Amino acid sequence: MLLYKYRAIDDLWLSLDIILNMRVWCSRWDSLNDPLEGRYYSRFGNGFDEKVNIRRNEWRICALSSALDNFLLWSHYASGHKGIAIELEIPEENPDLSKVQYSPFSPIFTDISESIKDHKNLFEIKTEEWSYEQEYRIICKGEFYELPNPIKKVYLGHKISSERAKILRSILPSSVEVVQMKLDSYQGKVVPET
After folding, report:
1. pTM confidence score
2. What does the domain layout of the chain look like in residue ranges?
3. Best label site of 55, 61, 65, 104, fewest CB within 10 Å?
């Protein structure tokens, strides 16, 4: 499955780390941009909630998208179309990969036995307004997640400066195809130049 990691290139080192070291950095849940991340509802009291919170804090997340042509993703996560999208190939059956479900509701614990689970599922649900992201997540316990396949393509935002594009082309390995994106203003999408 092809997924995309959108990046600003102002901190080029993190982008190069993905490409050259074949790994992605995974954030703690409480540092993500959704203030409702990791929330849940239970009616079992502080002891139950404490167990859930301990397990919730064990997980780290790397957000990816299945969409390359989404105008908003380029705007929000790639420096207003001046950044890049790194194409990752991850097997769909990978146990660390989860497709995000969009729902108006938080996870609800209705049974006290829920406290013995690992609570990875808390990070597989987001509210509906985030559905444009078409998000998949690597949910793991390590700070870095080793990618199963080498990076083959990097897409340049349509507003990236020619100087930065030239630098990226010169420093990336020859095995990585660099693809310039362009704006299709009629459809409101960002598409590869042909």
Report:
1. 0.90
2. 2-192
3. 104
